[in-house]
Design goal:
With 195 residues, the chain is of the alpha+beta class. It is built from one helix and 13 strands; from the N terminus they run H-E-E-E-E-E-E-E-E-E-E-E-E-E. About 3% of the residues have low confidence.
């Protein structure tokens, strides 16, 4: 009887420690998986997803350097009553010279909210300097179309995977995963940015 009373007291004394460890463990799990619901340790990760399926026919890209603008709708899990948010991302689908098809987000890699990247089919024919940043689009050497950010003067070479040719951009624009099935090109997820 005395032994069972002692075990009961040990259990009661250890209960707060067990509860503290449980709450700390859940907090740690929420840190590693921030959008996880309480008790949802084994639920799939709440990664961004496409809100709608976007597909294009290859016939819309008849010749190299054809560019089609589109808007990608990305569904993101957030902490609000709807538990999700739809973000509209302006984007380009482009057929390159080697018949490869790529898709880029038009959002500026520097994170400026209202700054969009534009497609320039003839970069050497559109010369002009921006006084604010003192850059001139005629000062770079490239014979193919480019993406240009007129907010900060960044220029991205489409023939070399969006490599930054000039400007203050820390990286190329974000690309989409594409899936080609016959004559249909499907837009997948937006790739993570690597700064």
């Amino acid at each position: 009887m005395n032994k069972s009373r002692r075990n009961l007291l040990k259990l009661l004394a250890g209960a707060p420690l067990l509860l503290t460890a449980g709450f700390a463990g859940e907090a740690l799990m929420r840190f590693t998986k921030p959008s996880m619901k309480a008790g949802g340790i084994f639920d799939p990760a709440d990664l961004p997803q496409s809100a709608t399926k976007i597909s294009f026919d290859k016939a819309l890209l008849p010749v190299p350097w054809t560019c089609i603008p589109f808007t990608y709708q990305m569904k993101i899990k957030v902490f609000n009553p709807q538990e999700e948010e739809i973000r509209k991302i302006p984007s380009f689908l482009i057929r390159l010279a080697d018949d490869e098809v790529v898709a880029y987000s038009r959002q500026c890699p520097r994170g400026k909210a209202n700054c969009l990247i534009n497609y320039n089919l003839h970069p050497k024919q559109r010369c002009g300097c921006v006084k604010e940043n003192e850059w001139c689009c005629c000062t770079f050497e490239v014979d193919n179309p480019v993406l240009m950010c007129h907010c900060d003067g960044s220029i991205y070479d489409l023939a070399r995977e969006g490599m930054v040719l000039r400007g203050r951009a820390p990286r190329p624009p974000r690309r989409y995963d594409l899936r080609v099935e016959g004559d249909l090109i499907s837009i997948g997820l937006l790739q993570c940015a690597i700064a």
